[in-house]
From TrEMBL:
GO terms for cellular component: cytosol; eukaryotic translation initiation factor 2B complex. This is Translation initiation factor eIF2B subunit gamma. InterPro entries: eIF2B_gamma, GlmU/GlgC-like_hexapep, Nucleotide-diphossugar_trans. Gene3D superfamilies: Hexapeptide repeat proteins, Spore Coat Polysaccharide Biosynthesis Protein SpsA, Chain A. Component of the translation initiation factor 2B (eIF2B) complex which is a heterodecamer of two sets of five different subunits: alpha, beta, gamma, delta and epsilon. Subunits alpha, beta and delta comprise a regulatory subcomplex and subunits epsilon and gamma comprise a catalytic subcomplex. Within the complex, the hexameric regulatory complex resides at the center, with the two heterodimeric catalytic subcomplexes bound on opposite sides. GO terms for biological process: cytoplasmic translational initiation. The lineage of its organism: Eukaryota, Metazoa, Chordata, Craniata, Vertebrata. SUPFAM superfamilies: Nucleotide-diphospho-sugar transferases. Belongs to the eIF-2B gamma/epsilon subunits family.
Amino acid sequence: QTDVLVLSCDLITDVDLYKVVDLFRTHDATLSMLMKKTHEPTDVVPGQKGKKKPVEQRDFIGVDDTGKRLLFMANEADLDEELVIKRSILQKHPRMHIRTGLMDAHLYCLKKYVVDFLVENRTITSLRSELIPHLVRKQFSSPTPLQQGLDNKEEDQKKKEQGALDIYSFIKEDNSLLKPAPDNSCWNDHRGDMNETLHEGKVRCYVHIMKEGLCFRVNTLGLYIEANRQVPKLLLNLGLEEPLVHVSAQITDRGMVGSDSIIGSSTQVGEKTSIKHSIIGSGCTIKEKVKITNCIIMNSVTIEEG
Protein backbone atom coordinates (compact mmCIF):
# COMPACT_ATOMS: atom_id res chain seq x y z
CA GLN A 1 0.00 0.00 0.00
CA THR A 2 3.06 2.28 -0.01
CA ASP A 3 5.85 3.44 -2.31
CA VAL A 4 8.58 0.88 -2.94
CA LEU A 5 12.37 0.62 -2.95
CA VAL A 6 13.78 -1.79 -5.53
CA LEU A 7 17.30 -3.08 -4.92
CA SER A 8 19.16 -5.52 -7.17
CA CYS A 9 20.71 -8.54 -5.45
CA ASP A 10 24.01 -8.05 -7.32
CA LEU A 11 24.60 -4.48 -6.09
CA ILE A 12 27.48 -3.74 -3.71
CA THR A 13 27.59 -0.11 -2.58
CA ASP A 14 28.33 2.15 0.36
CA VAL A 15 26.09 4.95 -0.94
CA ASP A 16 24.19 7.05 1.58
CA LEU A 17 20.74 5.75 0.75
CA TYR A 18 19.04 8.88 2.06
CA LYS A 19 20.43 10.84 -0.92
CA VAL A 20 18.30 8.78 -3.28
CA VAL A 21 15.29 8.74 -0.96
CA ASP A 22 15.47 12.50 -0.30
CA LEU A 23 15.27 13.21 -4.04
CA PHE A 24 12.19 11.02 -4.16
CA ARG A 25 10.47 12.75 -1.23
CA THR A 26 11.51 16.34 -1.86
CA HIS A 27 10.34 16.42 -5.48
CA ASP A 28 7.41 14.02 -5.05
CA ALA A 29 9.10 12.01 -7.79
CA THR A 30 7.63 9.13 -9.70
CA LEU A 31 11.12 7.65 -9.84
CA SER A 32 14.48 8.31 -8.24
CA MET A 33 17.44 6.13 -9.08
CA LEU A 34 21.15 5.65 -8.44
CA MET A 35 23.93 5.90 -11.03
CA LYS A 36 27.71 5.96 -10.92
CA LYS A 37 30.55 6.36 -13.37
CA THR A 38 31.21 3.10 -15.17
CA HIS A 39 34.01 1.06 -13.63
CA GLU A 40 36.06 -1.05 -15.99
CA PRO A 41 38.00 -4.03 -14.58
CA THR A 42 41.70 -3.25 -14.52
CA ASP A 43 42.92 -6.77 -15.28
CA VAL A 44 42.19 -9.36 -17.92
CA VAL A 45 39.42 -11.77 -16.98
CA PRO A 46 40.53 -15.42 -16.89
CA GLY A 47 38.93 -17.64 -19.50
CA GLN A 48 39.21 -18.72 -23.09
CA LYS A 49 42.02 -16.96 -24.88
CA GLY A 50 41.18 -15.31 -28.16
CA LYS A 51 37.49 -15.10 -27.35
CA LYS A 52 36.31 -11.72 -28.53
CA LYS A 53 34.76 -9.63 -25.78
CA PRO A 54 31.31 -8.34 -26.75
CA VAL A 55 31.11 -4.58 -27.13
CA GLU A 56 28.71 -3.12 -24.57
CA GLN A 57 26.28 -0.50 -25.84
CA ARG A 58 26.47 2.91 -24.20
CA ASP A 59 23.62 4.61 -22.39
CA PHE A 60 22.91 8.26 -23.20
CA ILE A 61 21.66 10.00 -20.06
CA GLY A 62 20.23 13.53 -20.18
CA VAL A 63 20.09 15.64 -17.00
CA ASP A 64 19.30 19.27 -16.23
CA ASP A 65 21.74 21.90 -14.91
CA THR A 66 21.43 20.55 -11.37
CA GLY A 67 22.46 17.08 -12.53
CA LYS A 68 19.51 15.61 -10.64
CA ARG A 69 16.48 15.83 -12.92
CA LEU A 70 16.51 12.87 -15.32
CA LEU A 71 15.28 14.17 -18.68
CA PHE A 72 16.39 11.65 -21.25
CA MET A 73 17.52 8.03 -21.42
CA ALA A 74 18.39 5.94 -24.46
CA ASN A 75 20.61 2.98 -25.19
CA GLU A 76 22.93 3.01 -28.18
CA ALA A 77 21.42 -0.26 -29.42
CA ASP A 78 18.02 1.44 -29.79
CA LEU A 79 19.35 4.34 -31.86
CA ASP A 80 20.05 4.71 -35.55
CA GLU A 81 22.78 7.13 -36.57
CA GLU A 82 21.32 10.12 -34.74
CA LEU A 83 20.29 10.97 -31.20
CA VAL A 84 16.77 12.37 -31.44
CA ILE A 85 15.44 14.53 -28.61
CA LYS A 86 11.80 15.61 -28.48
CA ARG A 87 10.98 19.27 -28.79
CA SER A 88 8.74 19.02 -25.70
CA ILE A 89 11.82 18.27 -23.58
CA LEU A 90 13.84 21.20 -24.90
CA GLN A 91 10.90 23.58 -24.52
CA LYS A 92 10.85 22.97 -20.76
CA HIS A 93 14.57 22.32 -20.30
CA PRO A 94 16.53 24.15 -23.03
CA ARG A 95 19.81 23.35 -21.28
CA MET A 96 20.34 19.62 -21.08
CA HIS A 97 23.58 17.77 -20.43
CA ILE A 98 24.01 14.43 -22.23
CA ARG A 99 26.28 12.03 -20.37
CA THR A 100 27.73 8.64 -21.24
CA GLY A 101 29.83 6.32 -19.12
CA LEU A 102 27.25 6.06 -16.32
CA MET A 103 26.24 2.77 -14.76
CA ASP A 104 22.68 2.15 -13.66
CA ALA A 105 23.04 0.65 -10.17
CA HIS A 106 19.55 -0.90 -10.34
CA LEU A 107 18.41 0.90 -7.19
CA TYR A 108 15.03 2.58 -7.65
CA CYS A 109 12.46 4.39 -5.53
CA LEU A 110 9.06 4.06 -7.21
CA LYS A 111 5.60 5.42 -6.53
CA LYS A 112 2.91 2.94 -5.58
CA TYR A 113 0.95 3.78 -8.72
CA VAL A 114 3.90 2.58 -10.82
CA VAL A 115 3.49 -0.86 -9.23
CA ASP A 116 -0.24 -0.71 -10.00
CA PHE A 117 0.63 0.21 -13.58
CA LEU A 118 2.97 -2.81 -13.85
CA VAL A 119 0.32 -5.17 -12.50
CA GLU A 120 -2.07 -4.15 -15.27
CA ASN A 121 0.52 -3.83 -18.02
CA ARG A 122 1.99 -7.33 -18.34
CA THR A 123 3.78 -6.49 -21.58
CA ILE A 124 6.57 -4.81 -19.61
CA THR A 125 9.05 -7.52 -18.64
CA SER A 126 12.11 -5.50 -17.57
CA LEU A 127 12.42 -2.59 -15.15
CA ARG A 128 15.73 -1.38 -16.55
CA SER A 129 15.22 -1.67 -20.29
CA GLU A 130 11.47 -1.02 -20.51
CA LEU A 131 9.83 0.56 -17.45
CA ILE A 132 12.47 3.15 -16.51
CA PRO A 133 12.87 4.57 -20.07
CA HIS A 134 9.07 4.58 -20.38
CA LEU A 135 8.70 6.70 -17.22
CA VAL A 136 11.42 9.09 -18.38
CA ARG A 137 9.65 9.59 -21.73
CA LYS A 138 6.25 10.04 -20.09
CA GLN A 139 7.46 13.14 -18.20
CA PHE A 140 6.96 15.21 -21.32
CA SER A 141 3.99 13.41 -22.85
CA SER A 142 0.33 14.22 -22.40
CA PRO A 143 -2.10 11.69 -20.93
CA THR A 144 -3.76 9.43 -23.49
CA PRO A 145 -7.04 11.19 -24.43
CA LEU A 146 -10.31 9.28 -24.14
CA GLN A 147 -12.45 10.55 -26.99
CA GLN A 148 -16.07 11.01 -26.05
CA GLY A 149 -19.19 10.58 -28.15
CA LEU A 150 -17.80 8.08 -30.63
CA ASP A 151 -20.44 6.38 -32.70
CA ASN A 152 -18.47 3.18 -32.94
CA LYS A 153 -18.70 1.42 -29.56
CA GLU A 154 -15.87 -0.95 -30.40
CA GLU A 155 -13.51 1.93 -31.13
CA ASP A 156 -14.68 3.67 -27.96
CA GLN A 157 -13.86 0.59 -25.90
CA LYS A 158 -10.44 0.34 -27.52
CA LYS A 159 -9.65 3.93 -26.59
CA LYS A 160 -10.67 3.32 -22.99
CA GLU A 161 -8.46 0.24 -22.77
CA GLN A 162 -5.52 2.24 -24.09
CA GLY A 163 -6.19 4.94 -21.51
CA ALA A 164 -6.37 2.37 -18.72
CA LEU A 165 -2.83 1.27 -19.58
CA ASP A 166 -1.50 4.82 -19.55
CA ILE A 167 0.58 5.68 -16.46
CA TYR A 168 -1.39 8.90 -15.96
CA SER A 169 -4.60 6.96 -15.38
CA PHE A 170 -3.04 5.44 -12.24
CA ILE A 171 -2.10 8.78 -10.66
CA LYS A 172 -4.61 9.92 -8.08
CA GLU A 173 -5.41 13.62 -8.11
CA ASP A 174 -4.67 15.50 -4.89
CA ASN A 175 -6.50 18.78 -4.40
CA SER A 176 -5.43 19.32 -0.79
CA LEU A 177 -3.40 22.28 0.45
CA LEU A 178 -0.61 19.91 1.44
CA LYS A 179 0.56 19.28 -2.13
CA PRO A 180 4.29 18.59 -2.66
CA ALA A 181 6.79 21.40 -3.01
CA PRO A 182 7.26 21.33 -6.81
CA ASP A 183 3.56 22.03 -7.41
CA ASN A 184 2.34 24.20 -4.54
CA SER A 185 5.25 26.00 -2.92
CA CYS A 186 7.33 29.13 -3.28
CA TRP A 187 10.29 26.76 -3.59
CA ASN A 188 11.03 24.86 -6.74
CA ASP A 189 14.02 23.37 -8.56
CA HIS A 190 13.24 24.97 -11.92
CA ARG A 191 14.98 27.98 -13.44
CA GLY A 192 13.06 30.19 -15.81
CA ASP A 193 9.35 30.50 -16.47
CA MET A 194 7.39 29.48 -13.34
CA ASN A 195 4.36 28.66 -15.46
CA GLU A 196 6.21 25.67 -16.90
CA THR A 197 6.98 24.29 -13.45
CA LEU A 198 3.48 24.74 -12.03
CA HIS A 199 1.88 23.01 -14.99
CA GLU A 200 4.50 20.32 -15.53
CA GLY A 201 3.37 16.72 -15.79
CA LYS A 202 2.75 14.56 -12.76
CA VAL A 203 5.46 12.11 -13.82
CA ARG A 204 8.87 13.26 -12.53
CA CYS A 205 12.15 11.33 -12.64
CA TYR A 206 15.34 12.10 -10.71
CA VAL A 207 18.79 10.55 -10.45
CA HIS A 208 21.55 10.64 -7.84
CA ILE A 209 24.95 10.26 -9.52
CA MET A 210 27.65 9.05 -7.13
CA LYS A 211 30.87 11.05 -7.44
CA GLU A 212 32.88 8.88 -5.06
CA GLY A 213 32.48 5.73 -3.02
CA LEU A 214 31.95 2.06 -3.71
CA CYS A 215 29.36 0.98 -6.25
CA PHE A 216 29.60 -2.33 -8.11
CA ARG A 217 27.13 -4.50 -9.92
CA VAL A 218 28.66 -7.97 -9.93
CA ASN A 219 26.72 -9.17 -12.96
CA THR A 220 29.78 -10.26 -14.95
CA LEU A 221 32.78 -12.41 -14.12
CA GLY A 222 35.15 -9.47 -14.51
CA LEU A 223 33.16 -7.26 -12.13
CA TYR A 224 32.82 -10.12 -9.63
CA ILE A 225 36.61 -10.51 -9.57
CA GLU A 226 37.13 -6.75 -9.31
CA ALA A 227 34.65 -6.46 -6.43
CA ASN A 228 36.48 -9.16 -4.49
CA ARG A 229 39.75 -7.32 -4.99
CA GLN A 230 38.22 -4.24 -3.41
CA VAL A 231 37.39 -6.07 -0.16
CA PRO A 232 40.62 -5.12 1.69
CA LYS A 233 40.09 -1.46 0.83
CA LEU A 234 36.43 -1.70 1.83
CA LEU A 235 37.28 -3.18 5.23
CA LEU A 236 39.74 -0.35 5.80
CA ASN A 237 37.20 2.32 4.84
CA LEU A 238 34.61 0.81 7.18
CA GLY A 239 37.09 0.90 10.06
CA LEU A 240 36.93 -2.86 10.55
CA GLU A 241 40.02 -4.37 12.12
CA GLU A 242 39.44 -7.89 10.84
CA PRO A 243 42.76 -9.51 9.85
CA LEU A 244 43.08 -10.33 6.17
CA VAL A 245 44.57 -13.69 7.15
CA HIS A 246 42.20 -15.52 9.52
CA VAL A 247 43.70 -16.43 12.89
CA SER A 248 42.90 -20.11 12.33
CA ALA A 249 44.70 -20.24 8.97
CA GLN A 250 47.99 -22.13 8.96
CA ILE A 251 50.74 -20.45 6.97
CA THR A 252 54.16 -22.11 6.93
CA ASP A 253 57.24 -20.01 7.60
CA ARG A 254 58.32 -20.24 3.97
CA GLY A 255 54.87 -19.58 2.56
CA MET A 256 54.38 -16.06 1.18
CA VAL A 257 51.03 -14.25 1.29
CA GLY A 258 50.77 -10.76 -0.21
CA SER A 259 49.44 -7.88 1.87
CA ASP A 260 46.47 -7.47 -0.50
CA SER A 261 45.34 -11.11 -0.29
CA ILE A 262 42.70 -12.63 1.99
CA ILE A 263 42.95 -16.09 3.55
CA GLY A 264 39.86 -17.71 5.07
CA SER A 265 39.52 -19.76 8.24
CA SER A 266 41.17 -23.20 8.63
CA THR A 267 43.04 -22.84 5.33
CA GLN A 268 46.51 -24.40 5.09
CA VAL A 269 49.31 -22.92 3.00
CA GLY A 270 52.35 -25.11 2.30
CA GLU A 271 56.09 -24.47 1.96
CA LYS A 272 57.39 -22.20 -0.81
CA THR A 273 53.87 -21.27 -1.85
CA SER A 274 53.19 -17.75 -3.17
CA ILE A 275 49.78 -16.04 -3.01
CA LYS A 276 49.37 -12.56 -4.53
CA HIS A 277 46.31 -10.38 -5.28
CA SER A 278 43.99 -13.28 -4.45
CA ILE A 279 41.07 -14.31 -2.25
CA ILE A 280 41.28 -17.78 -0.68
CA GLY A 281 38.18 -19.23 0.97
CA SER A 282 37.82 -21.28 4.16
CA GLY A 283 38.99 -24.86 4.64
CA CYS A 284 41.32 -24.84 1.63
CA THR A 285 44.57 -26.77 1.31
CA ILE A 286 47.26 -25.07 -0.76
CA LYS A 287 50.17 -27.49 -1.00
CA GLU A 288 53.88 -26.88 -1.56
CA LYS A 289 55.37 -24.78 -4.37
CA VAL A 290 52.03 -23.48 -5.61
CA LYS A 291 51.86 -20.01 -7.17
CA ILE A 292 48.49 -18.21 -7.07
CA THR A 293 48.07 -14.75 -8.62
CA ASN A 294 44.87 -12.77 -9.35
CA CYS A 295 42.58 -15.64 -8.35
CA ILE A 296 39.45 -16.19 -6.32
CA ILE A 297 39.36 -19.61 -4.67
CA MET A 298 36.13 -20.76 -3.03
CA ASN A 299 35.81 -22.88 0.14
CA SER A 300 37.21 -26.41 0.65
CA VAL A 301 39.47 -26.43 -2.41
CA THR A 302 42.72 -28.40 -2.68
CA ILE A 303 45.45 -27.09 -5.00
CA GLU A 304 48.70 -28.88 -5.76
CA GLU A 305 51.82 -27.94 -7.70
CA GLY A 306 51.49 -28.05 -11.47
